[in-house]
Amino acid sequence: MGFREDFLWGGATAANQTEGGYNEGGRGLANVDVIPHGEDRFPVMKGHMKMFDFDEDHFYPAKEAIDHYHRYEEDIALFAEMGFKTYRLSIAWSRIFPKGDEAEPNEEGLKFYENIFKECKKYGIEPLVTITHFDIPMHLVKEYGGWRNRKMIGFYENLCNAIFRRYKGLVKYWLTFNEINVIMHLPFMGAGLYFEEGENEEQVQYQAIHHELIASAVATKIAHEVDPENQVGCMLAAGKFYPYTPNPKDVLAAQQADRENYFFIDVQSRGEYPAYALKKFERKGIDIQMEEGDSELLKQYTVDFISFSYYSSRVVATDPEVDEVGGNIMSSVKNPYLEASEWGWQIDPLGLRITMNEIYDRYQKPLFIVENGLGAVDTPDENGYVADDYRIDYLAQHIQAMKDAVEIDGVDLLGYTTWGPIDIVSASTGEMKKRYGFIYVDRDNEGNGTLKRSKKKSFDWYKKVIATNGEDLSY
């Protein structure tokens, strides 16, 4: 037996990387808008360089992105042509609440997503909606300090109330926070955190995480109350950490690196702070401010399923002489047994099976792979066609590994959405040349191009994969 009959095949995007229309339809400015392309991108994303608005010296790719805001009908029709069963997308918070702290939502923003969801339903595509994919209204960053402030829970609750009620019957699969663990690596992008000099960054990050974990539980509570059919998942940037050698020190270091990731999901899935995290806070003098009722909320409203992104595995070494490789937001030692992408991401299909087994063993809840793909430089012909066999090869190997986890290991898997079914702006680098899609978009790193869509070779290949429910991976 292969994948379940109702397996949800599809693709995944994020509002800030696709929509554009940053100042249309009553939308307010968001943290993800003011992250520039170029050498200042990482300092801004890390919360070390203050950029709270646009300036004349930088290019901001999210302003226009790939103009999905005006072209979603064309894009969804192409997804339908491939046979998508689901489309994972995110809501731009500042479309619904432009400032974030208003009492009433923006009708034009609500209507925009309603139209998208109805367009999906027209083709029998199930929307899978990320409530917050790094999006935070800039007003909430400037006035409240982003997720460091407990008031954010109430603002997020208002967002959830508005969208769960408005989209009842249109959306039943929800994710609370995209790659929640990214807050530890890119805190401004992940949680709107900007640090003043000398501040205890780890204290601020873990306090912000607590607020997000409470908000996730509140979202799960509201979702189930509004519609018992709603299914709510958490979302982790996943990828197993391997020890570099069998030296027990390396093995322990790899285990500890895994725990740093699983900490978030331990809370969202099991409903309480794990002992190893509490000990770490004690050792480091991190004091998480909790309010009465927090523990009960976390315990009572755990997620229904675990979703995650998987691009690569990682390696940990305790020997300081061992070189690390670039390319990943989370650092890794080079694995001598693996090839790497053009951006240094180590390609490890078997690592996906290993990661799936570890997560399923840990939580015994259904899994959903909501991001997986290969970022590569594509060279189109004069018609915009790309013979992207390298992408097909990458995806075929990962789907086979995923299939083995289901068939051989018994992992319960709900679905699979490739990252960037259409070329979009890269979250990490802000580039367009780092392409993931089955659909080529004519646009370059500087924002030039017609935005014309054209099918790559992988388009028809993925269409066949979906039509055969993953049985035919040949090309």
Automatic annotation (TrEMBL):
PROSITE patterns: GLYCOSYL_HYDROL_F1_1, GLYCOSYL_HYDROL_F1_2
Family under the similarity heading: Belongs to the glycosyl hydrolase 1 family.
Gene source species: Desemzia incerta
InterPro entries linked to this entry: GH, GH_1_N_CS, Glyco_hydro_1, Glyco_hydro_1_AS
Protein name as catalogued: 6-phospho-beta-glucosidase
Keyword flag Hydrolase: yes
NCBIfam families in the record: PRK09589.1, PRK09593.1, PRK09852.1
Residue numbers annotated as active site: 371 (nucleophile)
Gene Ontology CC terms: cytosol
Keywords (A to Z) from UniProt: Glycosidase, Hydrolase
